[in-house]
């Protein structure tokens, strides 16, 4: 039944049952482990194959690491970075107390202290290059990244990267003289990289983990682009990257608070796919299953739980509307990369000159940072990337038999010869569901046929380690 309401001179159509039978909508909440498969289409198509997916939970070692994350250390790191006055990319590099050079040197010195406790597993480097005159670069300037690399114990060639950017800015992006505290944007992200480097330095991840502070983001992603290009030039197998950028406040510009939610941005079809592969992806409905989005789904599954105290709001787009960040540079090199950002930005405290106008304090100042919130975001990062580094690598060459006409689906992949792999798991979801909802462990094999139609659901294959850790899913293409 349909009816109409007359409001002044406007006639508004509404559905009658919305008047007489108002819907009892659930409270708005981002994903967590208790709501993981709770969506309208998660139970379709009906099947007795497999079971409802149970999100991976942190083990005792990971929970111990989580408990070491210290909000006071994070606060001290941010305060120290703010103390350098400005960290603008074009600011002085000849002072020990002011400018981006002083900030770079301090970050490196702290990272080296962590490395001293690593029994040689962590190496700290400060790679850089001289950027000539370019967009937002008015004179040649040294762009330097600070990297703390913990080499993996069993699979060092597989790499995961966590970054924040240590440069800052005010209203005029070319103003490199005035104070630009950059407490939230992005000392908060650098603090997460540094705190996690401290904790992981004394551990032994199976794959390599890199904790970075990159420069030049505000001027055009220069440091991240240099890092991603360096990895690509050396054929480094970066299986996942995250940029933590503006993760310092749980309060928005209207006073709205979401202290237990972080946004995760994940791009769709990869930029580096061939035209043929991109066309095929669209034809088979795989546009929502790019490597970046599989990485995002992985983060939700492992890190939105009681251990982190956080929900994750996945945003299926590159970044905030028509904006960008350092993960973009990795995506452009063909790597899976995502971005974490607070749920409600306050633009009075972002890219602003420090001032008071009409009683409002402007500027990216430490007083507007929620350090407990940053610590929880650090937990999300730690759980996600420790889980990645200790799981098997992504399954390679996953295909679905396109010549098999019927309601069964047959998959094949390259079976690993690693003794760390216990077997493989088939995961699936309805085509309208955002997250994997069902799973079936199929054993340590390289092919499987299941009584589910590839026409009706989205499938993925992931590896399961003997330690219980599971890789992100790989989407199958026709083969």
Structural key phrases:
479 residues, Immunoglobulin-like, eight-stranded mixed beta sheet, four-stranded antiparallel beta sheet, 11 helices, 24% strand, globular
What do you see in this structure?
Its cofactor is Zn(2+). Belongs to the peptidase M28 family. M28B subfamily. Residues 145-351 form the Peptidase M28 domain. Residues 1-21 have low confidence and may be disordered. An eight-stranded mixed sheet has the order 4-7-9-8-10-13-11-12, sandwiched between helices. With 479 residues, it is of the alpha+beta class. The chain has helices at 16-20, 60-67, 71-82, 100-115, 183-200, 217-220, 222-233, 275-283, 291-303, 327-331, 371-390; strands at residues 2-7, 10-15, 51-52, 122-125, 128-131, 141-144, 146-150, 155-165, 207-214, 237-244, 261-266, 311-315, 337-341, 355-357, 360-362, 399-400, 409-412, 421-430, 438-443, 447-450, 457-465, 477-478. α3 crosses α5 (183-200), α3 (71-82) packs across α11 and α5 (183-200) packs across α11 (371-390). It has two domains: 68-390, Aminopeptidase (3-Layer(aba) Sandwich), CATH 3.40.630; 396-478, Immunoglobulins (Immunoglobulin-like, Sandwich), CATH 2.60.40.10. The protein is globular.
């Amino acid at each position: 039944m349909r009816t109409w309401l007359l409001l002044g001179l406007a006639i508004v159509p509404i559905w009658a049952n919305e008047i007489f039978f108002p819907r009892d909508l659930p409270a708005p909440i981002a994903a967590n482990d208790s709501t993981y498969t709770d969506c309208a289409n998660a139970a379709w198509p009906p099947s007795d194959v497999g079971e409802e997916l149970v999100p991976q939970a942190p083990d005792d070692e990971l929970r111990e690491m989580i408990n070491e994350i210290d909000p006071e250390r994070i606060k001290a790191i941010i305060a120290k970075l703010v103390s350098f006055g400005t960290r603008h990319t074009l600011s002085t590099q000849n002072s020990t107390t002011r400018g981006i050079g002083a900030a770079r040197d301090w970050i490196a010195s702290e990272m080296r202290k962590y490395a001293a406790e690593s029994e040689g597993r962590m190496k700290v480097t400060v790679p850089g290059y001289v950027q000539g005159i370019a967009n937002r670069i008015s004179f040649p300037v040294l762009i330097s990244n600070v990297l703390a690399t913990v080499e993996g114990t069993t699979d060092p060639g597989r790499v995961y990267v966590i970054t924040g950017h240590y440069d800052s800015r005010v209203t005029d992006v070319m103003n490199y003289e005035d104070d630009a505290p950059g407490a939230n944007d992005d000392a908060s992200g650098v603090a997460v990289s540094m705190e996690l480097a401290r904790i992981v330095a004394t551990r032994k991840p199976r794959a390599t983990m890199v904790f970075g502070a990159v420069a030049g983001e505000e001027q055009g992603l220069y440091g991240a682009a240099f890092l991603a290009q360096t990895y690509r030039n050396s054929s480094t197998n970066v299986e996942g990257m995250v940029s933590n950028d503006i993760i310092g406040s749980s309060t928005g510009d209207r006073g709205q608070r979401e202290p237990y939610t972080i946004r995760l941005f994940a791009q769709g079809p990869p930029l580096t796919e061939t035209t043929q592969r991109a066309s095929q992806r669209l034809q088979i409905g795989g546009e929502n299953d790019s490597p970046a989005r599989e990485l995002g789904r992985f983060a939700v599954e492992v890190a939105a739980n009681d251990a982190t105290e956080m929900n994750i709001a996945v945003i299926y787009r590159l970044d905030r509307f028509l904006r960008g960040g350092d993960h973009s540079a990795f995506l452009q090199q063909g790597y899976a990369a995502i971005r974490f950002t607070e749920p409600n930005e306050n633009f009075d405290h972002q890219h602003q000159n420090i001032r008071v106008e009409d009683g409002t304090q402007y500027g990216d100042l430490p007083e507007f940072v929620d350090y407990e919130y940053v610590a929880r975001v650090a937990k999300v990062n730690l759980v996600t990337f420790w889980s990645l580094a200790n799981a098997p690598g992504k399954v390679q060459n996953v295909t679905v038999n396109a010549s098999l006409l019927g309601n069964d689906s047959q998959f094949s992949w390259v079976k690993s010869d690693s003794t760390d792999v216990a077997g493989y798991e088939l995961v699936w979801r309805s085509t309208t569901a955002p997250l994997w909802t069902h799973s079936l462990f199929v054993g340590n094999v390289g092919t499987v046929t299941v009584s589910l139609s590839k026409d009706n659901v989205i499938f993925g294959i992931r590896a399961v380690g003997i330690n219980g850790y599971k890789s992100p899913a790989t989407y199958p293409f026709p083969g």
